[in-house]
Specification:
Blueprint (H helix, E strand, L loop, with lengths): L4 H11 L4 E4 L3 H8 L8 H9 L4 E4 L2 H5 L4 E4 L5 E2 L4 E2 L2 H13 L4 E4 L7 H8 L4 E4 L9 H6 L4 E3 L4 H13 L7 E3 L2 H32 L3 H9 L19 H12 L7 H21 L5 E5 L14 H11 L3 E5 L7 E2 L2 E3 L3 H7 L2 E3 L14 E2 L8
Amino acid sequence: MGLGYVGLSNAVILAQHNDVWALDVEPGRVAMVNRRESPIIDAELEDYLRDRPLELTATTDKCAAYADASYVVVATPTNYDPETNCFDTGSVERVTAEALAVSPQATIVVKSTVPVGYTNKLRDQHPGASIIFSPEFLREGRALHDNLHPSRIVVGSDTEPGRLFAKLLVQGALDPDPPVLFTGSTEAEAIKLFANTYLALRVAYFNELDTYAAMHGLSTRQIIEGVGLDPRIGAHYNNPSFGYGGYCLPKDTMQLQANYCDVPQNLISAIVEANTTRKDFIATDILRRDPKVVGIHRLTMKAGSDNFRESAVQGVMKRIKARGVKVVVFEPELDAKRFFGSKVIRDLDEFKAKADVILANRRTDVLDDVAEKVYTRDIYGRD
């Protein structure tokens, strides 16, 4: 259930060797998958849907999808709700209830990210049902690649259904012997949140290093390279940006912080706060240039993605607009004339001409001819 990055990549992995029904509420997505077109930008997904044999049928019909299912994989959004200080897990609960009503024998596999301790509560709501949590570790734009070459497979259930589900994922992978870990469901939930929060920590660390260097006229590149030569630190995931963003890291860090409500901590809160501080610095640094018009080149968080959700540049954009500076946006994937009140320009040359300063979270050669206008913290030209 759910044909986003997680749902579609799992559907394709499993459909190589099993009969898979892919369920979504959006008829347009369903039609694209049945035409063997990917509704999201992902090179491997596009290839496998177009050219590989798959036993995959997409539908909006819940009864058809759930009937006789051995497994129901739940991959619906769980957005963070600041009012409740928790993920909104309503879609997971609805899907679980609907699936078990049609196929009570099915094992429910929750792939959506949930609070620590959530799966046990879901089991209490459905006594006797087989419900397991299996976290996902993928990147936007590389979702299928990361399932074909999994860093690890974690299943929060050391039971026969849990072990069989792990075998199905290994069967669909290209790597012959990926690490497989069976844990308790609560430990699996914690693995997901702690992993993403560590990634956010690493982004925040190198961003704050870059802020220090920028304010003291130092070479960020030289400092990062010297630091990264320590093998305990390494020269990876160290490229400065406008802040960590995308769909997962902002919400997962806040959820983990909420899970610490009765546990002493300083670091988790600092990671959350660091992202706000970084966006404040970026906006202030841009405004020092006294621009009349600021251009946002792409709203996406990273190269090769079409996902705008929680991208860091949007936070910077809102801060600049709040200071009364005009903002224009170049985003070819956006089907709208305006974005948060700012004009969307589809012609790249027109966009370049109108902007005094162009924000680019990641470098791109299409801006080389206006390099003097480009503001970026990107050093290495990668995510």
